[in-house]
């Protein structure tokens, strides 16, 4: 999200695109708990009408990620340390075995597609573009997990990812160290290609530990 509307939004599935942008702004800390945001103000920032923004915000309310503030707008639901610890624990319990199950079904075409997404993550990291980094990272992991063929697992992990807070990524981007985080996706793909499940499990545990440690430090 930017003040000058630099985020490009196509007018197909506009509500879904707005929803994705707002979600990532919440995860990265661009939209902070305690601050109140109106649909009109966010629409101006994104360069779209208020209607799809309002629909997206109501979806986030229904998911428990935002709350309405009467006659003022919407507020990001605050996450306490205990909340973030629980989310991290749930992601370890679900996302690691889920990734292992999905990876066992990955074929050459899947690895090529995931490699393209890893390239997007790397380009965003080099540019210091946290929003694009998060968007590509989300697509990478959910695309990989989708190979398991378990829709409920995919939806559960997607919801947990949306509740994660990664405020420290801005500092990593400013210091030029975001590329290190991006590189972990290539290591994950290398482990899958080698069918090295022990390495993949260790990589995923390490990758998720970052979400509760240095990537989450605000």
From TrEMBL:
InterPro entries: GntR_C, TF_FadR/GntR_C, Tscrpt_reg_HTH_GntR, WH-like_DNA-bd_sf, WH_DNA-bd_sf. Transmembrane segments: none annotated. Keywords: DNA-binding, Transcription, Transcription regulation. It comes from the Bacteria. Residues 12-79 form the HTH gntR-type domain. This is GntR family transcriptional regulator.
């Amino acid at each position: 999200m930017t003040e000058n509307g630099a985020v490009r939004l196509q007018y197909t599935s506009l509500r879904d695109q707005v929803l994705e942008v707002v979600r990532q702004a919440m995860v990265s800390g661009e939209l902070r708990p305690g601050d109140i945001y109106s649909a009109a103000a966010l629409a101006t920032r994104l360069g779209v009408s208020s209607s799809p923004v309002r629909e997206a915000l109501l979806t986030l309310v229904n998911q428990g990620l935002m709350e309405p503030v009467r006659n003022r707008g919407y507020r990001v639901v605050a996450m306490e340390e205990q909340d973030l610890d629980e989310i991290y624990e749930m992601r370890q319990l679900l996302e690691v075995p889920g990734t292992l199950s999905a990876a066992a079904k990955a074929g050459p075409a899947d690895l090529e597609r995931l490699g393209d997404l890893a390239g997007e993550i790397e380009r965003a990291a080099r540019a210091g573009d946290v929003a694009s980094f998060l968007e590509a990272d989300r697509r990478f992991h959910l695309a990989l997990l989708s190979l398991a063929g378990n829709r409920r697992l995919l939806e559960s992990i997607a919801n947990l990812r949306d509740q994660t807070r990664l405020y420290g990524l801005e500092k990593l981007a400013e210091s030029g160290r975001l590329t290190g985080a991006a590189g972990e996706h290539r290591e994950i793909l290398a482990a899958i290609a080698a069918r090295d499940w022990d390495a993949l499990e260790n990589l995923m545990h390490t990758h998720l530990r970052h979400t509760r440690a240095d990537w989450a430090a605000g």
